[in-house]
Amino acid sequence: MKIKMNENFKAFKDNYLFVECAKRIADFQAANPDAKVIKLSIGDVTRPLPKVAIDALNVAVEEQAHAETFRGYAPESGYDFTRQAVADYYTRRGAKIEASEVFISDGAKSDCGNVLDILGNNKVYVPDPVYPVYVDTNIMKGNEIAYLPGTLENGFAPMPTDEIEEGSVIYICSPNNPTGSVYNREQLTEWVNFANERGCLIIFDSAYEAFVSGDNPRSIFEIEGARTCAVEICSLSKTAGFTGTRCGWMILAHELEAAGMNLNATWSRRQSTRFNGVPYIIQRAAAAALSEDGIKVCMENIEYYKSNAKKLSEFLTSKGYKFTGGTNSPYIWMQTKDNMPSWGFFDLLLNEAQIAGTPGVGFGSQGEGFFRITSFGKAEDYDEAIRRLERIL
Ligand SMILES: *Cc1c(COP(=O)(O)O)cnc(C)c1O
């Protein structure tokens, strides 16, 4: 053909990390058919949907069976009841949001990429290590990408520096995937003030907000000044186990303006052109999960994962290992044994303890010498994993 292509795709590196992990695990399993490999690499939830969501789904399915209650196309930005349920969820936690600032979507990953549709070709800053979606969506768009190094010294929570250019876009993920680090109120205030002074936009990914405890902010809208410099992307994937059910949202405050354009109005225009809404039955389940009673039930699953993380954290602490995460996050980001390279440590755990995790270097160059383990598995697996790790760490 003689058509032009989006040649930005040529700049992609192969999706090497998870493919290579899966290959090494499969090779090990083939050579050791009796070995029971414990996967502490799971990046997906494993607990079932909370009953409130299932009940709401069942009622909504039945409604779809009758002409009087049947619903076709949903409003592109979400049903009012869902937008209000999200706004109420935030307001209960001290972040004042209006329903008209909430846009319901099929998940946070889509929004992370789609939001670039309404932005021009800005310079973007992402943390290193990083959730690969921020990098890859900006590669597709042909944007210049710069990295903000996370280190043991800054607790993998990089802070503003003078090198960040005016009018750029900054990605913040807190609690962070992969490092489990969380920004406290002071740090996030510093970021918001910085963005307002420099005319920057913060894209705040709060996918793991439900894991936050204590006074740490769960939304950037808990910070004064965020309404003029930030959009927030979140979903029920981790909060309510919706990874396969799919419902998320993006929040754009009415005050956000750039280039004489209102971001909320522009996003609304984009959605009405390119999106036909999240299914009615899913939005009913989402609204039920977000209700005060619904969230209480969701938190039982979050506590289940957190108790897995706590066991591992206590064990690693007793062994003198340095790590971030484990308290406000399902992730633990640990230093490898004797500062081994990440892949060497992967092989050591797999061969000597039949445990799989994820090599930190796969998330960025600053991840070398670190390793990600997750708490999304079964509680009994963590007891067994610790018994095995006891021998080799
Ligand atoms: C899991 C995750 C999400 C959620 O993605 P969905 O598309 O809503 O399932 C968003 N951001 C990060 C960093 C994640 O790890």
TrEMBL record:
<keyword id="KW-0032">Aminotransferase</keyword>
<feature type="domain" description="Aminotransferase class I/classII large">
    <location>
        <begin position="36"/>
        <end position="389"/>
    </location>
</feature>
<dbReference type="InterPro" id="IPR015421">
    <property type="entry name" value="PyrdxlP-dep_Trfase_major"/>
</dbReference>
<dbReference type="InterPro" id="IPR015422">
    <property type="entry name" value="PyrdxlP-dep_Trfase_small"/>
</dbReference>
<dbReference type="InterPro" id="IPR015424">
    <property type="entry name" value="PyrdxlP-dep_Trfase"/>
</dbReference>
<keyword id="KW-0663">Pyridoxal phosphate</keyword>
<dbReference type="Pfam" id="PF00155">
    <property type="entry name" value="Aminotran_1_2"/>
</dbReference>
<dbReference type="GO" id="GO:0030170">
    <property type="term" value="F:pyridoxal phosphate binding"/>
</dbReference>
<dbReference type="InterPro" id="IPR019942">
    <property type="entry name" value="DapL/ALD1"/>
</dbReference>
<dbReference type="GO" id="GO:0010285">
    <property type="term" value="F:L,L-diaminopimelate aminotransferase activity"/>
</dbReference>
<protein>
    <recommendedName>
        <fullName>LL-diaminopimelate aminotransferase</fullName>
        <ecNumber>2.6.1.83</ecNumber>
    </recommendedName>
</protein>
<dbReference type="InterPro" id="IPR004839">
    <property type="entry name" value="Aminotransferase_I/II_large"/>
</dbReference>
<comment type="pathway">
    <text>Amino-acid biosynthesis; L-lysine biosynthesis via DAP pathway; LL-2,6-diaminopimelate from (S)-tetrahydrodipicolinate (aminotransferase route): step 1/1.</text>
</comment>
<keyword id="KW-0808">Transferase</keyword>
